Input
Amino acid sequence: MRVPLSWLAEHVDISGIEPGELVERLTLAGLEVEGIRELGAVEGVVVGRVLEASPHPQADRLLVCQVEAGGRVYTVVCGAPNLRVGALVPLALPGARLPAGEVKEARIRGVKSQGMILSQAELGLEQKSAGIWNLPEGPKVGEELTPLLELPDRVLELKVTSNRPDLLGIYGVAREVAALFGLELRELDLDYPEEGPPAEELVQVEVESPEDCPRYLARVILDLEWGPSPARLAARLLKAGMRALSLVVDVTNYVMLELGHPLHAFDYDRLRGGRIGVRRARPGERIRTLDGVERALGGEVLLITDGERPVALAGIMGGEETEVSGDTHRVLLEAACFSPGRIRRSARALGLYTEASLRFERGLAPQLAEVASRRACSLLSRLAPVVIARGAVDAYPRPARLKVVRLRKARVEQVLGMKVPEEGIVSGLSALGLVLREEGEAWEARIPPWRGDLAREIDLIEEVARLHGYEKIPSRAPVVPLRAGEKAPREAFCDRVRRLMAALGLTEIYSLGLVPKDEAEVVLRNPQARGQEGLRASLLPGLLSAVKANLEAQNPGVALFEVGRTFHLRDGGIVEEDRLGVALAGRIPLPLSGKAEYSLAELKGILDGLLSALKVEDIALDKVDDPRLHPYRRAGIYLQSQVESPKSQEPSRVTRHPSRKLIGWLGELVPELCRDLPGERRVLAMELALAPLAEASREAEHRPLPRFPVARRDLSLLAPLSLEEARLREALMAEPLLESCFLYDVYQGRGVPEGHRSLTYELTFRHPDRTLASEEVDEAISRILSRLEVLGVRLRS
Output
């Protein structure tokens, strides 16, 4: 957004503000100033009138002109194709200074040129011009031109954020400057005479969808005389980055740059039936726009029609068939509000972006259409002898209401960390156009239509901070009590398991959680790469990959673990689980172990060590059906529900736990899973869920040292091979006086009946309150044997 300071000064008095100070204050207030351009290296340029123009005697493309200025006639050689006899032109006399240098008398092909007729580019107002600048009538011949062009001048280049469309107009920037410096913002002149017939008799407006076009306002201008714009208006347009074309078009562009609200002028006599319609395009419709391009239209495009055909792309560009020209004497002036999303889709569909679409895409308030329309009519009535029809046709079915936001005084101080004087808050926000009404310890703020970005209390507090000055807010570190961060119980338990596994001599790995879809229960809709289509349901694939990498690196023994998350489909939803995975392969890296390799004993020892450290007692190993494990070297890890039964001296049946839950497995992997490993090593693996372990984990309990001695007995038993040792141990421990039992021998062979095996236990008996007599120990053993008979177990003789 280009802002000429001369134009800005029309709306707010900035004569006492240095440009550097203005740039700094705008920047600190959040308006990014990308640069400032100096316009002013022009001296000695006057208004001249071309009296004669004759061909150059020695150059076909040059003219020898007689130009009047200041009571004298000067001979000037000019080659511009648009030179007209009788026209007013900018004339640089010898000694004049231009951006390109000083003008001097010179002979051009034998003819002495006493000056130079200038183009807009030579005056520094634009980059490139097609010819000289034919000035409109009005200035006096011989008059200095620089005051008319408001030179010297400076132009600010602002980068406007998408939430501030009000800053895409110079009047909006002036309002911001007035609020920041405490200056008065001059009111716009919106008055003009209405002398023609009522606008309702000349035009009809029909809007198909108010969602696409909340407001469409049309005024009619009559008895228009075609001509160029005054030099000052044209110069302002050029400084702001737009070319001057004709009075009507220039006024619509001028208002857009001034207020930020686009307008469009139609040749009223080219509209069929004096009708205006707003609707979306229909299949097969086409339009030739003002840039001369024939465009095919789709259903996304919003159109302005005359009831029969498209005459403009709504909010983007007008159509060639209704363009105002030198033959135009009646104009329909459009001031509308279009849906930002609809204009954005239209522009994208057509690949056409303009100054108008830029503003409509950011969202303009319907209330501003009336202001922009009246401003254009006011300018036209002052710049040309026109007749403006009375009133307007206003299709505005749902008038927008102003937002009201409550601003608490205490909240301002709380957020900013400092007290801002109330009078400063009221005056600053009022300067931005807000209307404040005090209610106790708060204000009710009515938001102006051009500030759609102010919707919450915090938005108003931000405005207070901007106007007061961010640099004035003291920098103080917040004083808050520091507390050590605590991990969630789940994360803390996983970390505890990691430390325990490392203490048991295993090495931790981290593997990728993405696996091929045939190994996953949960499949991704948009996978990142081939072979990563699913989320892992087990830690085993990652552990096997790590085992393979270690063995290929000549590592003789591998003991790895991973704590990670797996993903499962259960009850129609996705369930995530924290799990522990272990993999052992190769030699045991311990002194004196020789070439001994890992076995199920080491794997079970790791499980026992973990459970012991976690104080988890209700774990049992039992049969499990898992095709990944060797059928005779596998076990399920079960968590048993803790049900305590009162211990009695009387013999009783073994108490069975009512339920148990499978939380994992351990065993030797089948050879098919180990074929890719060097030497086809066998791998022992384990995996178990951590959430059940966390629930079953107990805190360490203090137990007093026993005061009475123990009584030990060895007991050799013959048990059926089908009986699990865990059930036998359970029957033993049901004896109240038995403190512990230790299995130290298992034998099967000669002397043992077929289908049986011999198990020898060391039993430790103790009474907490007295020393046991031998008779009491014998009675306890008798009760144990009675329980074992139920299981088919008898004493080995």
